[in-house]
Here is the input.
Amino acid sequence: MNRRCRLVFTLLLTLSAFFWTLSLRKRVENLSICQSILEEEKEYRELKDEEQRLYAQLYRPVELCDKEAAALALGMDKPRWEQLVCAESVLPDRVTVLQPSPGLREKIRELFSLP
Here is the structure.
């Protein structure tokens, strides 16, 4: 009986050590998964912050004076001679006034000779 109790005790101790090792291994796997999730969330937050920064930069109000100053700095204050196009017409302007076309009612009156 004593030998049987020791055998059962050893078997239970071995099984509990096996399950404890197995659960420890799963906890380590869960920890690595949680760590990767935290890294992904951090990257997501950084991308959202960059998106907001770029959105604010894109839609910030722009002063017209700043645009004009930049254009002047680039030499865009007056057109170059090759950019000028002169177009003159030697024909006189002419306007033709057309009479309105008769409506449906007038066409029916003409068809049936109604007054």
About this structure: The longest helix spans residues 2-58. The chain has a mean pLDDT of 84. The chain has three helices and no strands. The CA atoms of residues 33 and 61 lie 44 Å apart.
